[in-house]
Amino acid sequence: MEKILILDFGGQYSRLTARKVREQNIYAEIKPYTKVMVDEIVKEGYKGIILTGGSFSVFDKDAPHYDPALFKTGIPILGIGYGCQLIAYTAGGKVTYSDGGSEYGKVEVISDGSTLLDGFPAVSVSWMSHRNYIKEAPIGFNVTAYTEFCPVAAIEDEERNIYGVQFHPEVSHTEYGELVLHNFLYNICGCSGDWTMDSFVERKIEEYRDMLGDKKVLCALSGGVDSSVAAMLLHKAVGDNLICVFVDNGLLRKGEADYVERLFRDTFNFNLIRVDAKDRFLNKLKGITQPDDKRKAISEEFVSVFEEEAKKIGKLNYLVQGTIITDVIERGSGDITGFKGSENSGITSVIDFDAMLEPLRDLFKDEVRRMGQALGIPKDLVWRQPFPGPGLAIRCIGEITAEKLDILREVDAIFREEIEKTGYDRYTSQYFAVLTDTKSIGVLDDVRTVGMTVVLRAVNSDDFVTADWSRIPYEVLEKASERITSEVSGITRVVYDITPKPPATVEWE
Ligand code: XMP
Fold first, then answer.
1. Which tens digit of pLDDT belongs to each residue from 152-190?
2. What is the rounded end-to-end Cα distance, in angstroms, of the chain?
3. CATH code of the domain containing 327
4. Which domain holds residue 462?
5. What is the chain's mean pLDDT, rounded?
6. Mean pLDDT across the stretch 431-436?
7. Which of 33, 29, 1 is nearest to 15 (CA)?
8. Separation of CA 220 and ligand 1 centre (Å)
9. Rounded to whole angstroms, how far apart are CA atoms 263 and 276?
10. pLDDT tens column, 283-304
11. Which protein residues touch ligand 1 with a CB less than 6 Å away?
12. What is the DSSP letter of 501?
């Protein structure tokens, strides 16, 4: 398999770069510059190397540098941002502190084309993020682009196959970024584009099969996308030696626990243990009303249930975690249970295992979904909307009771059904119901009654860091409201949440 090394100097876009390379059907792996030596790089047979950006100045005392022998290997190299300055500095060019301010954001780049910039127009917009700049290119390098502020925005030494750009081709704001990467990967490195998700999955399965042999692997299967995909991959590699523990905490949506069990045990023949822990979780949540306390209680209970199950299984060699790249970026660690932050950190300390497996660590969510499809996981699971680890507990305001959860499950199921029936699920990113603790007056058979208030929430979002409320057609809301008040007893009022994030959050708690 052709592969590209992303030699990471701590740049904010390193992972994005890997993804952009994979989008061009070439496999890319990221290695921190401290973790890989030149001889290993040569041995691995990389088709090309990309030196990433970074936040240092090349002449800082602690700035990351790399063995100059790398530049003599003949492997094509592309430096981006800091990577470009590092090439220039190492090869004897002049890199200086900027005195005229930094370039940040969209900047016009002027170029008259080159091998790397083949097809690049004379003037185009690229994304810049740098304080220092290359004042003079090293001997042997041509300057192939510049900006108003930056005399050297791209360099190349065709003979030695070394290229650099001060701008960021991996960022979507760079108009011709894909072209630059394409030129590097296909024209300079000579890649043919042999990477597809199917071939990657096949290879991963083989790798794990060879590596794990008959070792025992444990996975906490939540039924969410990440843990399901990680588990499926491992199941294909080691079969029954993968033991999945699915904790039914009673906080899942209507029919969800049975669906997960049916799918993984009956359809895919997983070695699956379903733990009915509904009562334990309810007990643990008794009297708790504050969101953070709920999260903490659920997380603690999960760890203790999981620990008990793991002890019953006996000696385990590996623990699989569905960590994906955003978990690594945002939290600096993985996520096994679907809980945010450090809430699940307890799990690794209570399970006795030799090593952790994180097969999705380098992948973005949409890549994980595509991997899930390649593994044969049904579309409705692979493309499902996010569901918080603490489940309905944080959508049921105030103290949790079995009755309130049942009501919420019914309301939520009706709302989701109506959205899906009308095909509106294609236009909204996440939709669900919240059971408030606000009582409201209603009229039933001409008699005034006191009932509960539910909220319907639907949002559109790319990354859930910000979100807007979905403009669901009134008819869909109307139908959902009618059904909820007539089919679920005790509900006197249905309201629709029209707050974006910020200032609100997606969830109510
Ligand atoms: P907020 O409410 O923070 O939600 O705007 C953003 C996204 O994160 C989900 N969410 C959670 N996911 N554990 C999770 O795994 C949690 O505790 C949690 N809280 C919120 C939420 O559903 C939305 O998609």
1. 999 999 999 999 999 999 999 999 999 999 999 999 999
2. 46
3. 3.40.50.620
4. 395-497
5. 93
6. 98
7. 29
8. 19
9. 17
10. 999 999 999 999 999 999 999 9
11. 295, 338-340, 386, 388-390, 430, 464, 501, 505-507
12. B
Residues 162 and 206 in one domain: no
| Chosen domain end from 142, 168, 188 | 188
For residues 230 and 269, state if they share a domain.
Answer: yes
Same domain, 211 and 169: no
Residue in the block written with tokens 């097809």? 119
End residue of a domain, out of 130, 157, 188 = 188
186: Cβ–Cβ under 8 A, 6 or more apart, which residues? 24, 192, 193
DSSP class of residue 464 equals: S
> Which residues touch 290 (CB under 8 Å, ≥6 apart)?
none
Label each residue of 226-259 as H, E or C: HHHHHHHHHHHHHHHHEEEEEEECCCCCCCHHHH
The domain total for the chain is: 3
In the reported structure, the alpha carbon of residue 291 is separated from the centroid of ligand 1 by a whole-number distance in angstroms of: 12
CB-based contact 464:502 (threshold 8 Å)? no
pLDDT tens for residues 85-113? 999 999 999 999 876 668 999 999 999 88
For residue 161, the domain's CATH number is 3.40.50.880
Measured on CA atoms in the order 443, 444, 448, 449, is the torsion positive or negative?
Answer: negative
Model confidence pLDDT, tens digit, residues 104-141: 999 999 998 899 999 999 999 999 999 899 999 999 99
Residue with tokens 């007056």: 441
Cα–Cα distances in Å, from 113 out to 61, 123, 134, 143, 157?
36, 10, 19, 10, 14
Q: What residues are paired with 491 via a beta bridge?
A: 452
Which secondary-structure segment (H or E) carries 418? helix 402-421
Ligand 1 midpoint to CA 343 (Å)? 13
Token pair 């510059």 is at which residue?
A: 33
Q: What is d(CA 465, CA 483) in angstroms, rounded to the nearest whole number? A: 32
Same domain, yes or no, for 261 and 316?
yes
**How far apart are the CA of 59 and the centre of ligand 1, in A?**
42
Q: Which two tokens stand for residue 385?
A: 């909307």
> Residues 8, 74: one domain?
yes
Q: Which of 333, 507, 509 is the best mutation target for the ligand 1 pocket, counting ligand atoms within 8 Å of the beta carbon and taking the most?
A: 507
Structure tokens at 438: 């606000």
